[in-house]
C-alpha cells in the first residue's frame, strides 16, 4: 500500500481581467466536444475490462492533499487583470506502480476567493459561474500519455465540466512520481465561451475570452 500523497494545483476557470492576455506564452488546450461511445466501442471496452479484471491489479489510489494544493485562475479585460482561487478542492489519482493512470478533481465553486469582494460575488453570479445552479466544477482524465515537450512530460486528456458544460480538453503537464508524493503541474489557456460563460463586460472594457489555467 503506497503512502504517497497526491499534490495537485489546478489554476482553474474564469474571471474578468488583464489588458494583456493572461495566458502569455502558455499553450492553449485543445478543446473538443465529448465523443459519444458507440456500441462497438462499448463491447471492445467491456472485453478489455474483463481481461484486466483477470490480471493481478497493481493499482494504487491516492487522495489529493488539499493543504498542499490550490486552484487558481487568471482572466483579463481591456483595462486590467484579476486572479483568484478556490479554497475547497478534493480529488484522487490512480497509479500503476509508478505510472500515472488517471486523475479526478472536484472544485467547490462557492469557495472562490478574489479581490475585491465585489468581483468575487460577480464571478459567482449567473454572469459567470452561476454557483447556485452549478456548485462544482470537475475534471476526470480519460488518458495520460508520456509525451516530453518543453511544457511537460505527459499529455493529459479528460472531461472538464464548468457551469454544467462538459468538454474534452487536452493539455501538456509535468508529472513527477517519488516515493513520498505525486505532483502534477501544467499551465494552459481555455476559451471561457466554450463552457457557456459569455458575459461580455462593459462596452468600453470588454472581457477577453482567453482564461489561464495553472495546474501544479
Class derived from helix and strand content: mainly beta
Distance between the termini: 24 Å
Report the major sheet: 13 strands, mixed
Mean pLDDT: 83
Q: From the alpha carbons, calculate the radius of gyration and give it in angstroms.
A: 18 Å
Q: What is the helix fraction of residues, given as a range?
A: 10-25%
Low-confidence segments, ≥5 residues, pLDDT <50? 5-19
Please provide the ordered H/E string of secondary-structure elements: EEHEEEEEEHEEEEEEE
Query: β content, as a range?
Result: over 45%
Number of strands: 15
Form type = globular
**How large is the count of helical segments?**
2
Describe this structure in words.
- There is one protein chain.
- Helices cover 11% and strands 50% of the residues.
- By secondary structure, the protein is mainly β.
- A hairpin with a 2-residue loop joins strand 10 and strand 11.
Throw out a few tags for this protein.
216 residues; single chain; mainly beta; 13-stranded mixed beta sheet; two-stranded antiparallel ribbon; 50% strand; 2 helices
Question: SSE layout and pairings?
Answer:
Elements: E1 5-10, E2 30-33, H1 39-53, E3 59-63, E4 70-76, E5 81-86, E6 89-96, E7 99-108, E8 112-114, H2 117-124, E9 136-149, E10 152-162, E11 165-177, E12 181-191, E13 201-202, E14 205-206, E15 210-215
Task: Describe the structure concisely.
The chain has helices spanning 39-53, 117-124; strands at 5-10, 30-33, 59-63, 70-76, 81-86, 89-96, 99-108, 112-114, 136-149, 152-162, 165-177, 181-191, 201-202, 205-206, 210-215. The protein has 216 residues and is mostly beta strands. Strands 1, 2, 3, 4, 5, 6, 7, 8, 9, 10, 11, 12 and 15 form a 13-stranded mixed beta sheet that branches. The protein has a two-stranded antiparallel ribbon with strand order 13-14.
Amino acid at each position: 500500500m503506497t503512502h504517497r500523497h497526491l499534490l495537485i494545483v489546478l489554476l482553474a476557470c474564469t474571471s474578468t481581467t488583464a489588458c494583456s492576455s493572461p495566458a502569455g506564452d502558455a499553450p492553449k488546450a485543445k478543446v473538443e466536444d465529448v465523443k459519444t461511445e458507440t456500441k462497438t466501442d462499448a463491447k471492445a471496452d467491456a472485453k478489455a475490462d474483463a481481461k484486466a479484471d483477470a490480471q493481478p491489479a497493481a493499482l494504487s489510489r491516492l487522495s489529493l492533499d488539499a493543504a498542499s494544493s490550490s486552484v487558481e485562475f487568471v482572466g483579463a479585460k481591456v483595462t486590467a487583470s484579476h486572479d483568484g482561487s478556490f479554497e475547497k478542492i478534493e480529488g484522487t489519482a490512480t497509479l500503476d506502480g509508478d505510472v500515472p493512470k488517471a486523475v479526478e478533481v472536484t472544485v467547490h465553486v462557492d469557495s472562490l476567493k478574489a479581490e475585491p469582494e465585489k468581483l468575487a460575488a460577480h464571478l459567482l453570479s449567473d454572469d459567470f459561474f452561476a454557483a447556485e445552479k452549478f456548485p462544482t466544477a470537475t475534471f476526470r482524465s480519460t488518458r495520460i500519455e508520456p509525451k516530453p515537450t518543453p511544457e511537460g512530460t505527459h499529455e493529459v486528456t479528460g472531461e472538464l465540466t464548468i457551469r454544467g458544460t462538459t468538454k474534452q480538453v487536452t493539455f501538456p503537464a509535468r508529472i513527477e512520481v517519488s516515493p513520498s508524493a505525486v505532483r502534477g503541474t501544467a499551465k494552459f489557456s481555455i476559451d471561457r465561451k466554450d463552457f457557456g460563460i459569455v458575459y461580455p463586460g462593459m462596452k468600453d472594457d470588454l472581457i477577453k475570452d482567453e482564461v489561464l489555467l495553472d495546474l501544479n
